[in-house]
Amino acid sequence: MIARILELAAPRAAAADVRTTADQTLVLTLTDDAVTSAASLSEQGASVRVVNDGRVGRAGTTDQDIESLVDRALVSAAASDPLPMLLPGASPLPPVATHDAEAAALDLETLADLGWRLSGRLRRDGRRVMVHLERSVGRVHIANTRGLDAGYDASLVAMELSVLRTADGVVATTQLSSVSVPGDEALAELAADIERQLEWAHSGAMAPTAPGPVLLMPAAVRGLLVPVLDALGLRGEPPAMRLHPSISLRDDPWLALRPGSRAIDDDGVTTWPQTLIAEGVMGHGAIDLESGAAMQRPATGHCRRTTFGRPHAGFSNLLLAPGEASLADLIGALGDGLLVERIACTWGIGRAGALHLPVALGYRVRGGEVRGRIEGAVLAGNAFDALSKVGAVCQDRTWVGSAFLPALLVGGLSVAGD
Q1: Is 333 helix (H, G, I), strand (E, B) or coil?
Q2: For FRET with 96, which of 15, 269, 272, 349 sits at 20 to 30 Å CA-CA?
Q3: What is the pLDDT of residue 209?
Q4: Which residues of the chain have pLDDT under 70?
Q5: Shared domain check, 144 and 119
């Protein structure tokens, strides 16, 4: 397919590139001791981009009929503003492990066995346990009229675990995403995370009213980073604000067997590990080919592209540097305040960092000990301000999707009722 699209585009456009994807996904949900849903899904797509008369146009399809694809891309280019973009040529790629044969071989039966092994660690009287599992295998192929022709195979095993304690309605959740099949150690860590959440939520408590620091667990830290990552993308110059010197953030697409890893981005640009924030100083961030052409800056190998969507800058594996404090140290330093396990959503975060976020699961800490869950709390303040007032950073990190994050003790946030 990809060769035929380029054959159609070459005589009619100054340059063209094509990205094709093919994915096959198994989806399975286990509730208590029963399989409640199972499905097998297949998807493929082709996205073509043309450069003609100094203008860029795009078109996509999920059909085998590709004859009109270049026509539509040329129409798109004719209606676009001038953009002098140069496609990359072929170059050697780094060896990056993005596919695991054992994971690719998982069928619904073996996927269910994996889920039962996990849920069996948590089933008790008075609990409802749900495990959602996905196994995906696929291939990404990118080629252009300058001789680039590259691709990679990918596998993914994702697990989302939720436990409801029926006596008080407390829900504990955790997740895992991996290129390879999770082993017993990984399953034990997921179960231990659930048990910790349920233990901390042993009773209800009131949210603190006095100003003070807030302890954010890794999933909540991921939400706080949303405007920071936005500021690091699509910018020609680094933002003027400075964060706390303990904040250093790297983007590493070369990590073996991590879901965000890849040797080549969706523009066809070779990737490489990069420092985004160095001891509180924010760098230039992520730039894809099209935004780079508009800013007259080189692309950084961060392009993300879907079949029908516009290419944009995105990150791979984000690694926030750990600190020296244990979680117990952080809780002790919090003294009397709020510990946030996770926030309800990130819709309440503005591009400038202003936030008003409902707390999905939080705990009251008194005297350096967790005293119970709180309900109806809302975090308010500014994400950049909070990340400039970091009191301590945990020495342990947890994967939250494709981000490897520690817990943070931060200031600059207020707590109010919903």
Answers
A1: helix
A2: 15
A3: 67
A4: 209-210, 234-240, 346, 348, 350, 417-418
A5: yes
Shared domain check, 279 and 189:
no
Residue whose pair of structure tokens reads 């503003």 in the numeric block: 81
Query: Among the three residues 197, 216, 239, which one is the final residue of a domain in this structure?
Result: 197
Q: Is 117 exposed, middle or buried (0-12, 13-18, 19+ CB in 10 A)?
A: middle
Question: If you search the block for the tokens 């301590």, which residue do you land on?
Answer: 392
**Residue 57 host element (H or E):** strand 55-61
* pLDDT value of residue 189: 96
Q: What is the CATH number of the domain that holds 82?
A: 3.30.2290.10
The last residue of one of the domains, among 138, 164, 197, is 197
Instruction: Compute CA 45 distance to the chain's CA centroid, rounded to the nearest angstrom.
Output: 22
The one-letter amino acid at 251: D
Nearest Cα neighbor of 303 from 43, 47, 66 is 47
Question: What range does the domain containing 254 cover?
Answer: 201-418
124 and 169, same domain (yes or no)? yes
Residue 245 phi, psi dihedral angles, 5° rounding: -60, -20
What is the maximal distance between C-alpha atoms in the chain?
73
For 134-188, the pLDDT digits (tens) are 999 999 999 999 999 999 999 999 999 999 999 988 899 999 999 999 999 999 9
Total domain count for the chain? Answer: 2
**At 69, phi and psi to the nearest 5?**
-65, -45
Eight-state DSSP code of residue 207: P
Same-domain pairing of 192 and 242: no
CB within 8 Å of 310: residues ≥ 6 apart: 58, 290
- Of 109, 355, 107, nearest to 224 by C-alpha is 355
Residue 309 shares a structural domain with residue 163: no
User: What confidence score (pLDDT) does residue 418 get?
Assistant: 53
- How far the first Cα of the chain sits from its last, in Å, is 53
Q: Is residue 309 located within the same domain as residue 413?
A: yes
Task: Check residue 341 and give its pLDDT.
Answer: 94
Judgement on whether residues 169 and 104 belong to the same structural domain of the protein: yes
Residues 66 and 167 in one domain: yes
Query: CA–CA separation, 160 vs 189, rounded Å?
Result: 13
pTM, to two decimals? 0.93
Rounded to 10°, the helix 108-119/184-200 angle is: 40
